[in-house]
From TrEMBL:
The keyword Nucleotide-binding applies. CDD domains: LuxR_C_like. This is DNA-binding CsgD family transcriptional regulator. SMART domains: HTH_LUXR. SUPFAM superfamilies: C-terminal effector domain of the bipartite response regulators, P-loop containing nucleoside triphosphate hydrolases, TPR-like. It comes from Streptomyces iranensis. InterPro entries: AAA_16, P-loop_NTPase, Sig_transdc_resp-reg_C-effctor, TPR-like_helical_dom_sf, Tscrpt_reg_LuxR_C, WH-like_DNA-bd_sf. Keywords: ATP-binding, DNA-binding, Nucleotide-binding. PANTHER family: GUANYLATE CYCLASE DOMAIN-CONTAINING PROTEIN (PTHR16305:SF28), TESTICULAR SOLUBLE ADENYLYL CYCLASE (PTHR16305). GO terms for molecular function: DNA binding. Residues 867-932 form the HTH luxR-type domain.
Length: 937
């Protein structure tokens, strides 16, 4: 591939024709060949190949190359031809003397006389040998050299001389006469070299690759290179380089070598061609000959010729670069100052031409200097269009440029607010550096009402609670002027939001209304502050004893009313958490999955991260530890730990509890080493974190540390006047810790205190009954545990159900009812196993079976065989459903796992109960054999 030609068949024909012309010249029939072709079409390769063959034939070879840099040097090419080591010394001396003589300064007649003498000197050498004169890039030659070559061509018709010249298809004005005179010579043959066709590319590739690989690569190689041999060679070099680094790549992709080849082609062409290529690169899809001429200050004819050259050498196709790598290479090679000036001028031209905001903005963003004032609305509009197309980084650049172009004032602050909301999509950490300026703008009253609630929530998320409270207070003082009612409404919503997130701020914030509307009911409301106010009121209902049902209704209203956007994301997440805390995990899961579906195909990491965090909390409360850990890890991967702000409390809480429940204590302890914002423990997420840390300490035997965390949570909730077990059941946690410390009295006191205070949550009541049962005497233990099991079976917390079933089974076993105890413990084990709660599984069945239980079962002959016969009466589908039901799966979960409808599951269970002679789901494990239980998928 080092000498890759153009169309191989065409190239071989030309080479064969040159050899035939050489044989004719050797016989005294002088010949002249003019080879034309675009840049990099293979002219030089053809010339060099023929030169080697001419030398092998014994011909005297004289070579020269035209150069634009030497175009003003008289007889530059002629000097190169005679500066040849193979030429006789006396002839070279004679010619050089003629060229250096005074004749060069004389009249045209004198110069013609000199050229005649030089020609005669040359022709004297052909008595014994054939003379071959090769001149590459003759179109770059000086006028005197072209006159000499034309003079020589007229004299070699009957001489042993072959002249081969190569030229570009586009000639200078002064070269037309030279070109026409050459073609008029009867012994002149014109040859054209074209770019490779697709079949030619395949043929060229087959020289170094297998035929199969060459045929596979040819279409893509031809598309990218356009058949340009130089570009094709570079493309293959890039492909091989990637292969050498062990990266399997089916299709060749242009890289560094290709970029250099593109620049090489451009520098080998006319100077204006490079300028035109830069203009095309800058304008991109907006390129047109008219705009290109205006951008570069070139005439229409010059632009037309330059674009034609770029098409001929396959750099362009349909007035655009064939590949983005080529365009990028041209832009990168353009000096920064010149490139910036081109982008700025292109922006003005496109704007005046009525181009779209996106096209104009792409130029403005690429220009290094600050945009002018006229560009601000264009950049804002472009940013919004870019967001629709999920071009987040470009939208950010647009807003940054617009912000820099604005003078300090409300408009600049509004741009910064929008910039922060867009940066938040990528990650809260990306918005951090912009928050101080927004805080200052808010304190000076420059923040628009529509931006107050979102910006307040961003400040609070980042842990800037004091700054958020100060900004809201400052805005409240300015609400009496301008958009007074709108600002009052926004301040009210923000105050409610901050109070909900951080109850200690309650006494520092202005009191401008209550509820979602409050005293500002008649004020114009923006969607953002309405969403924040409604979500805050919903969470407040959760934190008010006896209002859980109202909180569920309000949460669903929020989720139904507001669509997912930058300004409503946090309110929607709060509404989801309200459903979670109120115990409506089914509704929370349905809404969460719906919102996740909305943003699954969108490039909005923050939205996805927050929804994954909520999904993880739902899974944790359902007892699905593996899903909880996976969703939490996913959320953490989408936003850096630093970017989570005070939200890290909720995320770490979920993940720590999930890892602890699965027995991954090292992972859980490592998570406790994560640095936390100082303000975390002034917020609700701080309470979640305290509970998670305490549960981890409790599971790993650090009982006093656990008790300290639970008590601290209780003290904070008391001080904040939100001592609601739905938020965090610190008394339950502390009671379990006192049991572990061997003090059932204190445990019982805390559990009874919580029951007296009331508990609307069935999950919490069931757990409290289990704790109380563990402090009761054996006879009273079973009724409490049976009540706990009945309550928990109606809920969604499978881990707590497994705990209650295990305690009930052990209670029966202690009373001597080994069979019932075995069934319940085994059922508890299977429920815990499906949750991934390995420590609980080991606690329930350390050896997977109890020898005492097996002995008790063996003392009842025939029962096992009868149960086996019952199972054999079931169909294969019924066995699968029965086993999953025995494991504690709900009808909906069974339907999902077996890909059937819930109705089908219910019908099968009806037949299963009849065949096994049981009345309830909880009796299934006693009828199913161990092999059936362990054989489930």
């Amino acid at each position: 591939m080092n000498s890759l030609p153009a169309n191989l068949f065409e190239w071989e024909n030309h080479l064969s024709a040159l050899r035939e012309m050489l044989r004719g010249a050797t016989q005294g029939r002088g010949r002249l060949a003019l080879v034309s072709g675009a840049v990099a079409s293979g002219k030089t390769t053809l010339l060099n190949t023929f030169a080697e063959q001419a030398i092998e034939s014994g011909a005297l070879l004289l070579e020269g190359t035209g150069s634009r840099a030497e175009r003003d040097l008289p007889f530059g090419i002629v000097r190169k031809i005679f500066d040849n080591g193979t030429m006789p010394a006396d002839v070279r001396s004679e010619v050089i003397a003629l060229l250096d003589g005074n004749a060069l300064e004389s009249t045209a007649t004198g110069r013609m006389h000199v050229m005649s003498q030089i020609s005669s000197a040359l022709l004297r050498m052909v008595d014994d040998r054939t003379l071959v004169v090769l001149v590459d890039d003759v179109h770059c030659g000086d006028d005197q050299s072209l006159q000499f070559l034309l003079h020589l061509a007229r004299r070699v018709r009957q001489a042993k001389v072959l002249i081969v010249l190569t030229e570009s298809p586009r000639l200078r004005q002064e070269q037309f006469t030279f070109h026409a005179e050459l073609l008029r010579q009867p012994n002149c043959v014109r040859m054209r070299l074209h770019m490779l066709t697709e079949s030619g590319v395949a043929e060229a590739l087959s020289g170094t690759l297998s035929a199969t690989v060459a045929a596979r690569l040819a279409p893509e190689c031809h598309r990218v290179s356009g058949g340009n041999p130089l570009l094709l060679r570079a493309l293959l070099e890039d492909w091989r380089t990637v292969g050498e680094h062990g990266e399997a790549q089916q299709r060749p992709a242009p890289g560094e070598a290709f970029a250099h080849a593109v620049l090489g082609c451009l520098h080998r062409g006319e100077p204006e061609v490079l300028r035109i290529a830069r203009g095309v690169a800058v304008l991109g899809d907006a390129c047109s000959p008219r705009l290109l001429g205006q951008l570069l200050d070139l005439s229409a004819n010059t632009v037309q010729q330059g674009v034609q050259d770029l098409h001929q050498c396959a750099i362009l196709e349909h007035n655009a670069f064939r590949d983005e790598v080529a365009r990028t290479a041209v832009l990168d090679a353009t000096p920064a100052t010149a490139r910036g000036a081109l982008h700025a001028r292109a922006a003005r031209l496109l704007h005046a031409d009525g181009a779209s905001a996106l096209d104009v903005a792409r130029q403005l963003v690429s220009a290094p200097q600050d945009a002018e004032r006229w560009a601000v609305p264009v950049l804002r509009e472009a940013a919004e269009f870019a967001l629709v197309e999920e071009e987040l980084e470009f939208a950010l650049h647009c807003l940054e440029c617009a912000h820099h172009a604005c003078a300090p004032g409300p408009e600049r602050t509004a741009l910064k607010a929008r910039l922060v909301s867009v940066a938040w999509r990528i990650g809260p950490a990306a918005a951090e550096s912009h928050l101080p300026e927004l805080t200052e703008g808010a304190e000076r009253g420059r923040l628009a009402p529509r931006d107050v609630a979102p910006i307040t929530s961003y400040l609070a998320w980042s842990g800037r609670l004091d700054a958020a409270a100060g900004a809201v207070s400052a805005l409240a003082r300015t609400a009496a002027t301008g958009d007074g009612l709108a600002m009052t409404a926004a301040v009210s919503a923000s105050a409610q939001w901050l109070t909900m997130l951080s109850p200690p701020l309650r006494d520092r914030l202005p009191t401008v209304g209550t509820g979602a509307t409050g005293a500002t009911a008649g004020a114009p409301r923006d969607m953002a502050d309405l969403a924040h106010a409604h979500a805050a009121a919903t969470m407040s209902a959760v934190l008010t004893e006896g209002q859980a049902d109202r909180a569920v209704i309000e949460a669903e209203r929020v989720l139904q009313r507001y669509h997912l956007s930058d300004s409503t994301l946090q309110p929607l997440v709060v509404a989801l958490m309200a459903l979670v805390l109120a115990g409506r995990l089914d509704l929370a899961l349905s809404w969460c999955e719906r919102l996740q579906g909305e943003c699954s195909a969108r490039r909005v990491p923050t939205w996805q991260a927050l929804l994954s965090a909520v999904r993880a909390e739902i899974a944790l409360r359902q007892g699905d530890l593996q899903v909880a850990a996976h969703q939490a890890r996913t959320a953490m991967s989408r936003i850096s730990v630093q970017g989570w702000g005070v939200g890290i409390g909720l995320l770490l809480s979920t993940l720590i509890q999930a890892e602890t429940g699965m027995g991954h204590y090292d992972e859980a302890m490592a998570l406790l080493e994560q640095p936390l914002p100082e303000e975390l423990f002034q917020t609700l997420p701080g309470l979640f974190y305290l509970r998670a840390r305490g549960r981890c300490h409790l599971a790993t035997g650090r009982y006093h540390a656990a008790l300290g965390d639970f008590t601290a949570a209780g003290e904070l909730m008391g001080a904040w006047r939100v001592d609601i077990p739905l938020l965090t059941p610190w008394r339950l946690d502390a009671a379990e810790t006192w049991l572990a410390l061997g003090d059932p009295g204190r445990a019982r006191a805390l559990a009874e205190e919580q029951l007296r205070l009331g508990s609307e949550d069935a999950r919490l009541r069931g757990a409290l009954l289990v704790v109380l049962a563990r402090t009761d005497e054996l006879k009273r233990r079973v009724p409490r545990l049976k009540e706990a099991v009945e309550i928990l079976e109606g809920g969604e917390d499978r881990i707590q159900l497994a705990v209650a079933l295990g305690e009930l089974g052990r209670a029966y076993r202690s009373l001597g009812d080994f069979n019932r105890g075995r069934v319940l413990v085994r059922k508890a084990w299977h429920v815990a196993k499906t949750c991934g709660a390995d420590p609980l599984c080991r606690e329930l069945m350390p050896r997977h079976a109890d020898p005492g239980e097996l002995a008790a079962a063996a003392a009842q002959p025939g029962q096992g065989a009868e149960a086996q016969r019952d199972v054999e009466a079931l169909t294969e589908a019924e066995v699968r459903i029965a086993v999953l039901a025995a494991h504690g799966n709900t009808n909906r979960e069974i339907a999902s796992k077996l890909f059937v409808t819930v109705s089908t599951v219910e019908q099968h269970l009806t037949r299963i109960y009849r065949k096994l002679n049981v009345k309830r789901r909880r009796d299934l494990p006693a009828k199913l054999s161990d092999s059936s239980l362990t054989g489930t998928v």
